[in-house]
Amino acid sequence: MRYRKLTELNQAMTASEIAMQEADAAFLQEVQKVAEAIHQSAVERPIILLSGPSGSGKTTAAFLLERYLDSWNTETHTVSMDNFFRTMTPEQQLLAAEGKLDLESPDRVDVPYLNQQLKKIITGEPTWLPRYDFRTTTRQDQNWLLTRKPGELLILEGIHALNPDVITVPDEKTVRIYVSVRTRVTHGDTVLQPSRLRLMRRMLRDRNFRHRSLPETIAMFERVQAGEHKYIAPYKKRAAFSIDTFLPYELGIYKTLLNREIDSCMSHPILKELHEMWADIAPLPLEQVPMDSLVREFAGDSAFQY
User: Domain tally for the chain?
Assistant: First the structure.
């Protein structure tokens, strides 16, 4: 667990574009070390299970790992567990709108179907994979076809990827990774917990891709956190590798992108620590952020797309 002072982050990240590039390079180096370990055990462990709480950057971390492995001639395929969610019934849609449906529960995943398709992938059978539409809460089962060849890897990313009741692939065939924000930002006596930074990521993602307002995302946050403690945290000890997805410049980017909307939400108690440092965060331009940055997963125009 690391602590970074806001004043130092402001000073370093506003000095030049090079500082932001160096921050990305440090994160990529951390991901590369994990990719090297995966590469070494590729024959024995072809399934990479990547988990982490909401807003942790699982998608970008998975695609960065894939990029490294592909560059070393180890063909890798990335699949999101979200696409194995069950289609919601009209009754479930109503409950979800009223905040009465547990959206974090592994029951949302079609576990038998997921493991059936995983077994086919492992044995090299041509396998149809689904795609889930969050706007309509429906799943299309035969969306794209994957045929894994001998020696190729599969990265499966999702909040329940480390839960052995959800993924029944034998442990000896898997490499297990946990990603999340671990760095805490301090400003005087105020400490911004990692979950609040992930909340800001969710604000952007939900606004840009799921048509949710900031107040709606904040209203969901307590249930999301409860789900993390109940369904995700108990299994992070199963991970062989852990990646801290904090980027020193991301607070400045969020200041630029959220500043107009977030003011009306700052009175919410969940944002107390953020409110106490918000005025002193130095804004940074999104234009300086590369397309393969983890920040782009939430801010848009990411180089990585499913």
Answer: 1
